[in-house]
From TrEMBL, chain A:
The chain crosses the membrane at residues 21-47, 83-107, 119-142, 148-169, 207-230, 257-277. GO terms for biological process: transmembrane transport. Belongs to the binding-protein-dependent transport system permease family. This is Multiple sugar transport system permease protein. Keywords: Cell membrane, Membrane, Sugar transport, Transmembrane, Transmembrane helix, Transport. SUPFAM superfamilies: MetI-like (SSF161098).
TrEMBL record, chain B:
CDD domains: TM_PBP2. Pfam families: BPD_transp_1 (PF00528). Keywords: Cell membrane, Membrane, Sugar transport, Transmembrane, Transmembrane helix, Transport. GO terms for cellular component: plasma membrane. InterPro entries: ABC_transporter_permease (IPR051393), MetI-like (IPR000515), MetI-like_sf (IPR035906). The chain crosses the membrane at residues 34-61, 99-119, 131-153, 179-201, 230-249, 287-306. It is found in: Cell membrane. Residues 94-305 form the ABC transmembrane type-1 domain. Belongs to the binding-protein-dependent transport system permease family. This is Multiple sugar transport system permease protein.
Length: 295, 321
């Protein structure tokens, strides 16, 4: 046993034997195939003809290529362009609101001393544990009184008030920025707002990008809120529209699953793009969360 | 001890004396506090409007009957009593949610640690595998639900056609009372990548010297994994387990979209049930009571995991101290 271990000492740690590497590749190939197969199936269904949908004769490897499905959803058979626009409105409010408002609040919690700050921060942490289901009913009643049901307002306005999770994440990040910078800024005559905008925000770039991406992901795929507040088809965001198109609750006729899958692809692709362009920053923030865990 | 106190008193004294001399009402300290409240005001307002206020209202509503049309009617503890004594659906819902959570959280935890260990190996092409493992976690829930309605379809489904290749006659999954929850579990496990990413980041943080030292001491790869990597990762695993518990207990979209809670309530879970009571049957009072129960369950589970975590979570900094 110890002899074997000595033999291996010259190799880099963790590389193991050639057999080990082969086994790793084999396992990962199988796992990847299992995880990737549903994607291929999604593309294949999206490219199917209506006749194939009727017969449910889908294949894993695409056999027909009805690219016009991607145009049909925009023009004749669905209002997907409208749904995407609605989604973008919700996303824009979420990204701008969540990112910049949360950053400002986080800065206040990390840097400015005030009586009651500790108590407020405790409350902020406690609210992170409250499931949205507890507050959604009174919120619904509130928005109903305001006459906001079946408008996008209940879906965008709350974003402008920041969110506890993002504020917490950003506060932790801001707290690590050296305080000497604050003093230097004050010597230069910058006020607190100037300090935030000129000095702190540029240094917060990784966490700003990360929160922006999380907000994008959340708002782009958000289903529960739109489902509760919206009734009119033309006001739906894409996620709700796709579900509406699939009409899983009615059994009268086969829903246009090829078009539904086009919608599913439209939902998925922006997520992949945003992720790949922001990977670097997310990784930095993950590294912080990963090495700290929950403390 | 006495010396320390002495020093402190002496050092503070001059500052206290100085203060009255520079004493405009508008001190630097007050200015800072004012700016804190200005900058924190969006969150404070949002908290009062969308969190604090609704929490109080929700608690009040849970003691009433309210259908949105007539004013809420105080019924005391009736909603809570009814839940436990007079609502057979509630018990089924609670059972389903528990079974689902107890399947999803352990399976994804073990699988994500195993995958992270494989993906961390310094072999060529790992980037590609890491990407493939993570990508399903990026798919919005509505899209993956649409996809899984065809993966899990009885005859035309991807899964059953694959099983047929090896001679297994697969069940009707989402249409079968026994197999509907395992079907939903599979969909959740598809998104295992979320946890893997954090674990991989955690693995990067393990000092290589630790593993090297163990190798020199004659530890085999298995021992290195269980004696070093796993303990070092345990804080991340704790984070994943808690986030997993909270998220899984609140499962909604895939149930609502794929099964609507059926067949015969076999996949009805707490949040879809709350949704149905509140926004389909307009029983706002009962739904509020259910949501408070959900809150209590989540708090209890999280507290239990935290309490037991001191036995299995290892914090490096505590050893160094």
């Amino acid at each position: 046993m110890s002899l074997l271990a000595q033999d291996r000492r010259s190799r880099p740690v963790g590389s193991g034997s050639r057999l080990d590497a082969a086994a790793t590749y084999a396992i990962l190939t199988v796992v990847s195939a299992v995880l990737a197969a549903p994607f291929l199936f999604m593309v294949s269904i999206a490219l199917s003809s209506d006749a194939t949908v009727q017969k449910a004769a889908f294949t894993l490897i695409p056999r027909e290529f009805h690219v016009e499905n991607f145009v049909r959803v925009m023009t004749s058979d669905a209002q997907m362009a409208r749904w995407i626009l609605n989604s973008l409105i919700i996303v824009a409010f979420a990204c701008v609101g969540q990112t910049f408002v949360s950053a400002m609040v986080a800065f206040a919690f990390a840097r400015l001393r005030a009586p009651g700050r500790g108590l407020l921060f405790g409350i902020l942490l406690a609210t992170m544990m409250v499931p949205i289901e507890v507050t959604i009913i009174p919120q619904f009643i509130l928005f109903r009184h305001l006459g906001w049901i079946d408008t996008l307002l209940p879906l965008v306005v709350p974003s402008l008030f920041g969110s506890a999770y993002n504020i917490f994440l950003m506060r932790q990040f801001t707290a690590r920025i050296p305080r000497e910078l604050d003093e230097a800024a004050q010597v230069d005559g910058l006020g607190y707002f100037g300090l935030l905008v000129r000095i702190i925000l540029p240094l917060m770039k990784p966490v700003l990008v990360a929160v922006g991406v999380f907000s994008f992901a959340w708002a782009w795929g958000w289903f529960f809120g739109p489902l509760i507040y919206l009734n009119t088809e033309s006001k739906f965001p894409l996620a709700l529209g796709v579900q509406f198109l699939s009409g899983t609750t009615t059994n009268a006729q086969t829903p246009p699953y090829n078009l539904v899958m086009v919608g599913a692809l439209f939902l998925t692709v922006p997520m992949l793009l945003v992720y790949f362009f922001s990977q670097k920053y997310i990784y930095q923030v993950n590294l912080g969360a990963g090495s700290a865990g929950i403390r | 001890m006495g010396e320390g106190v002495d020093v402190r008193v002496r050092s503070v004294a001059p500052m206290v004396e100085k203060r009255p001399t520079a004493k405009p009402w508008w001190t630097q300290r007050r200015r800072e506090a004012l700016w804190f409240y200005i900058m924190a005001s969006p969150w404070i307002a949002g908290f009062l409007l969308f969190m604090g206020g609704p929490l109080v209202a929700s608690l009040y509503l849970s003691f009433t009957d309210y259908d949105l049309l007539t004013p809420p009617e105080w019924v005391g503890l009736d909603n809570y009593v009814r839940m436990f004594t007079d609502d057979p659906r509630f018990w089924k819902v609670l059972r389903n949610t528990t079974v689902y959570t107890l399947l999803v959280v352990p399976i994804t935890t073990v699988l994500s640690v195993w995958l992270a260990a494989l993906l961390h190996k310094p072999l060529k092409g790992m980037r590609v595998f890491r990407t493939i493992v993570y990508v399903p976690a990026l798919v919005p829930i509505v899209a993956s639900a649409m996809l899984f309605s065809w993966v899990l379809a009885p005859d035309a489904g991807l899964l059953n056609r694959t099983l047929a290749l090896v001679g297994i006659d697969g069940p009707a999954w989402l249409l079968d009372e026994t197999w509907v929850i395992p079907g939903l579990v599979m969909m959740s496990v598809w998104g295992v990548g979320t946890g893997v990413v954090l674990l991989l980041a955690g693995m990067q943080g393990i000092p290589p010297e630790l593993l090297e030292a163990a190798t020199i001491d004659g530890a085999n790869p298995r021992q290195r994994f269980f004696q070093i990597t796993l303990p070092m990762l345990s804080p991340v695993i704790l984070f994943n387990v808690i986030m997993g518990l909270i998220g899984t207990f609140q499962v909604f979209s895939q149930v609502y979209i794929l099964t609507g809670g059926g067949p015969n309530d076999a996949s009805m879970m707490l949040v879809p049930y709350i949704f149905e009571e509140a926004f389909r049957n307009f029983r706002m009072g009962y739904a509020s009571a259910l949501s408070w129960l959900l809150f209590l369950i989540i708090m209890t589970c999280t507290a239990i995991v935290f309490k037991t975590s001191s036995r299995w979570v290892f914090y490096e900094s505590e050893v160094r101290r």
